[in-house]
Amino acid sequence: MECYQIEGGIPLRGAVQVSGAKNAVLPIMAAALLTPEPCVIRRVPDLSDVRLMCEILTSLGAQVRLAEGTLTIQAPNLEGHADYKLVRQMRGSFCVLGPLLARLGRAHVSLPGGCVIGSRPIDLHLKGLRALGASIAIERGYVCAEAPRLAGAELFLGGRAGTTVLGTANVMMAATLAKGVTLIESAACEPEVVDLAGFLVAMGAKISGVGSPFLTITGVNELHGAEYEVIPDRIEAATYAIAAAATNGEVAIQNARPDHLHAVVDKLREAGAEVERQGSALLVRRGPRLAPVDVTTQPYAGFPTDVQAQMMVLMTLAPGISIITERVFEARFTHAAELARLGADIVVEGPSAIVKGGLPLSGARVMASDLRASAALVLAGLVAEGPTLVRRIYHLDRGYVSMDEKLRRLGANVQRVPEPPEELELC
Ligand code: EPZ
């Protein structure tokens, strides 16, 4: 197992290239199962989640080739069984359910299970597919779905926390091959859902209302192969923007989509950072004084839950009280206790974390619990005085392409090191 050894206190300076979006490419890879023809996907990020999705598609019978950021997927013959051993490792893989059901008329997909950030039910996914006429049972930990031919329908996909991103993806993909018209109300509007719709339309699907809560899909008999380039990763871009402000540096975030980052840029400016848009780049530096701000996470276009942990780090540096409220996932504050090891003062009360900012951070050994929490711990290590050891960075490798290299190019002192023996004993 590997860790990041970080020597903090160095302002980040220079430019960083944003990679392709993890949360766009995963459902796009699943969508390639909707046709027997070859699909070519570009700007594919080199991530462990992507490699795992390649394994899952291969286990379903697809031919998958990933080389230098380009994926070729062809699934002339398909199996309908997605195994627990693979699906349990990554929730994103559950979005093979819709394409398998639409293409084969049956699917046997392991339940994805929960994770540290919440119970993560799939009731909305199943509600949507049942509305399209699928009969669905949960047996021995698997979703068993059948539908000789799905039929278009009108359905509402809103739930406890608003809409669902992968639920919208699953139902939208299934509806592309259904008989008739489907109207999804309260559909997710995330840029990753819009990107998936873009790929489906490139395959010949008929979809309107993309990017709005009202998606209309007119089913077709078959889809064809397509070539597509994935959008840049807005969460990665936001992470580097916050790193620039937190380290009191100046960073140009290149190949980004600033139009996907309004909520984050708005909060950064409110906190005193200076953010300038330069074409597809964002130039970010910390202004004269950091200020505490309150943040509430929401579905897109609100403040993204995947940036909440990183923003918490910035608020530990702003003198005064900030309140960070998590409205999307019910248990997404595991990073708060680890940030306390570095000297942060954070009290979690129900859905909110009260951050008393302005206290200096000092290096310590911390442990990552999930993808975005690990990014926050790296940012805190970049700011803290002295050495920080971030353990279990396999979480980070799931969603950030070569973060240590990108940070070193910005002047940071970050080394990927093997887990020290004494740490292994603690594992
Ligand atoms: C996607 O997860 C992303 N993952 C998550 O990113 C992201 O945090 C999330 O959307 C919200 O933006 C991928 O795209 C692979 P949801 P998803 O269904 O689709 C509840 C990261 O760090 N819900 O939109 O699984 C659910 O429990 C990851 O990259 C139901 O109640 O999230 C949650 O509270 C983490 N019933 C809320 O909705 C359902 O059937 C939003 O979840 C489905 C969801």
Question: What does the secondary structure layout of this molecule look like, with pairings?
Answer:
Blueprint: E1 2-7, E2 13-17, H1 22-31, E3 39-42, H2 48-59, E4 63-67, E5 70-74, E6 81-82, H3 84-87, H4 97-104, E7 106-110, H5 123-131, E8 135-139, E9 142-146, E10 154-156, H6 165-175, E11 181-185, H7 191-202, E12 206-208, E13 214-218, E14 227-229, H8 234-246, E15 250-254, H9 262-270, E16 273-278, E17 281-286, E18 295-296, H10 308-317, E19 320-325, H11 334-341, E20 345-349, E21 352-357, E22 365-367, H12 371-383, E23 387-391, H13 394-397, H14 403-409, E24 413-418, H15 421-426
Parallel strand pairs: 2-15, 3-14, 6-7, 10-11, 18-19, 22-23
Antiparallel strand pairs: 1-23, 1-24, 3-5, 4-5, 7-9, 8-9, 11-13, 12-13, 15-17, 16-17, 19-21, 20-21
Helix pairs in contact: 1-2, 1-7, 4-6, 5-6, 6-7, 8-10, 8-12, 10-12, 11-12
The structure holds ligand EPZ.
Ligand EPZ binds at residues 23, 26, 91-92, 118, 120-125, 159-161, 164-167, 192, 305-306, 328-329, 371-372, 399.
Task: Give structural attributes.
427 residues, alpha/beta, four-stranded mixed sheet, 15 helices, 26% strand, globular, binds ligand EPZ
Tell me about this structure.
By secondary structure, the chain is α/β, with parallel strands linked by helices. 32% of the residues lie in helices and 26% in strands. It has 15 helices and 24 strands. The termini are close together. The mean pLDDT is 96. The structure holds ligand EPZ. Ligand EPZ binds next to helix 1, helix 5, helix 6 and helix 12.
